[in-house]
């Protein structure tokens, strides 16, 4: 009986991953409103009803796509449990710790920024999508605020900055929109953008 349950669970997870990959491709190619549950199901090789059964709504599906891009597909891991987060926490020098954060979070932005921008655009015209977008923004703000609090325990923040204003700066300079603009529209490479952040953020956030 245990083997049967395990087999069913593995099949269910495999179906879920197929749908997520198909949705990622459809949203990336057609945008939120252009992608349909029917087209996602066809690309995944499943029935449309299966997509609804697993994810219920299209906004929940794009939310799950972003989660999988941020945390990984096979063994989902929140940033706070990643090796680079632990390295940041253990590093006594604030600027070096900030570098751990920038380079550790970099692959997450590389994977998720395009879909996050698609979600942001769709949120302007759809209340349900707006709530999904706000949910992810709240998660990101919470995580970035944790980073700023950690930095402030290692070194003083720049004069005039509070934890909240420093979080605002970090969210803006190292956000999905800024990453997308710099790497997709302005032509910076991923590494070039991260190198610049490692130089600029200590000056923006920390007391000289």
Automatic annotation (TrEMBL):
InterPro entries: Homeodomain-like_sf (IPR009057), HTH-type_TetR-like_transc_reg (IPR050109), HTH_TetR (IPR001647). One of its GO terms (molecular function) is transcription cis-regulatory region binding. Signal peptide: none annotated. Residues 13-73 form the HTH tetR-type domain. Keywords: DNA-binding, Transcription, Transcription regulation. It comes from the Bacteria. Residues 36-55 bind DNA. This is DNA-binding transcriptional regulator, AcrR family.
């Amino acid at each position: 009986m245990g083997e049967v349950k395990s087999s069913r669970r593995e099949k269910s997870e495999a179906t879920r991953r197929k749908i997520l990959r198909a949705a990622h491709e459809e949203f990336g190619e057609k945008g939120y409103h252009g992608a349909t549950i029917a087209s996602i199901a066809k690309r995944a090789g499943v029935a449309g009803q299966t997509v609804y059964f697993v994810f219920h709504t299209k906004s929940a599906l794009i939310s799950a796509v972003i989660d999988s891009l941020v945390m990984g597909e096979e063994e989902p891991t929140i940033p706070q449990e990643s090796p680079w987060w632990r390295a940041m926490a253990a590093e006594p020098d604030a600027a070096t710790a900030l570098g751990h954060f920038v380079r550790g979070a970099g692959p997450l932005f590389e994977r998720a920024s395009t879909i996050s921008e698609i979600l942001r655009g769709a949120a302007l015209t759809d209340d349900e999508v707006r709530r999904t977008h706000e949910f992810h923004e709240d998660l990101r703000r919470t995580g970035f605020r944790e980073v700023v609090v950690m930095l402030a325990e290692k070194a003083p923040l720049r004069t005039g900055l509070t934890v909240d204003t420093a979080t605002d700066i970090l969210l803006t300079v190292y956000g999905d929109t800024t990453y997308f603009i710099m790497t997709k529209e302005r032509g910076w490479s991923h590494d070039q953008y991260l190198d610049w952040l490692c130089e600029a953020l200590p000056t923006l956030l920390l007391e000289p």
